[in-house]
Amino acid sequence: MKSLKRVMAFILVFVIIYTSLTCCSLKITNASSNITTRRPINIGVLLYSFDDLYTSIIKKTLEDIQMKNEDNVKFTFYDGKNNQSIQEATINNLFKTGNVDILLVDLVNRSVESVKNVLDKATALGIPVVFNYLEPRAEDVIKSYNKAFVVDADNKQGGDLQGKIIIDIWNANKSSIDKNNDNILQYIMLRGSDQNIRPQYALAAINTKIKTEPLQIVNANFNKEFAKDAINSLFLKYNGKIEAIIADNDAMAIGAVEALQTYGYNTGDLSKTIVVVGIDGMPEAIELINKGEMEGTVSQDPRDTAEALYTVGMNLFSNKTPTEGTNYKLDKMGVTILLPYQEYTAGK
């Protein structure tokens, strides 16, 4: 009888130990499984061109965000090369493979049709989409999908501030700017695209205080070299009549300054200076302004844009409201964040 009790006791101890070890093994296996199956959130970033100065800073800021959150997010960047066909092929392939959790999109073609094309595909897969800068805004299309949003800038404010820079310098140095003494500002406008309405706001602001005459309106595609080539040619064509160059981004403004400098202008001598203003607040533009070779810019920090794109995208992915945990200002339709501009001139 004692022997039987010893056997039963031994069996009971063995069962307890075996059960404990088995449960522990299962827990370890499950934990290991959780670790191996966990992956970062894949964020596809479609940029209209890696060559654009502003866009390059957005890209660098997102790369910095990934370094700080390498276990949580993974960005993959796609260069649209300022070519609609290339970007559309990339978009179609991304949706076909489905290897993306969030899309941050800076379209080459910002038409309503292009926006709708992206959202039709995203809606079918439930992928959040955050657009960077849309003009026209396409609010109705954006509102049709509850995981779509836009990060933009207050374009009216940007145009108004750019106009203010022109007005202030005209009032301060009219005698040196108004080369033919006709009380009219002769200017060249460097536009980024025909769709962008920001230059209209700048001109409207200028025209409240100054009579103006457009010598040429050039679509330089937000590109420094295009702008440089255009001003090289127009400087000779207008032979001293150009009094101001209004550029729709700093890249084009920088290109304009470089072109003028080949003719001995905009090197710091007020008597041989053509007023050049830009938008974006790029470091190279700030340097030119501080040296007196460019009049001013209107700054909207691309690092803030990148942070907003990332924050809104992650909120949408987590089924939160797009602006949760932020103080972002929305437009009246409630589907666009409007990031503010700031004026920058020498001494400010």
UniProtKB/TrEMBL annotation:
Superkingdom of this protein's organism: Bacteria
Main location: other
InterPro entries in the cross-refs: Bact_Solute-Bind_Prot2 (IPR050555), MglB-like_PBP1 (IPR044085), Peripla_BP_I (IPR028082), SBP_2_dom (IPR025997)
Residue ranges constituting the Periplasmic binding protein domain according to the UniProt record: 43-320
GO cellular component: outer membrane-bounded periplasmic space
UniProt-listed Pfam families: Peripla_BP_4
Cellular compartment(s): Cell envelope
Molecular-function annotations in GO: carbohydrate binding; metal ion binding
Keywords, ordered alphabetically: Calcium, Metal-binding, Periplasm, Signal, Sugar transport, Transport
UniProt cross-references to SUPFAM superfamilies, sorted A to Z: Periplasmic binding protein-like I
Keyword Transmembrane: no
Oligomer and partners: The ABC transporter complex is composed of one ATP-binding protein (MglA), two transmembrane proteins (MglC) and a solute-binding protein (MglB).
Protein name, as recorded: D-galactose/methyl-galactoside binding periplasmic protein MglB
Organism: Clostridium saccharoperbutylacetonicum N1-4(HMT)
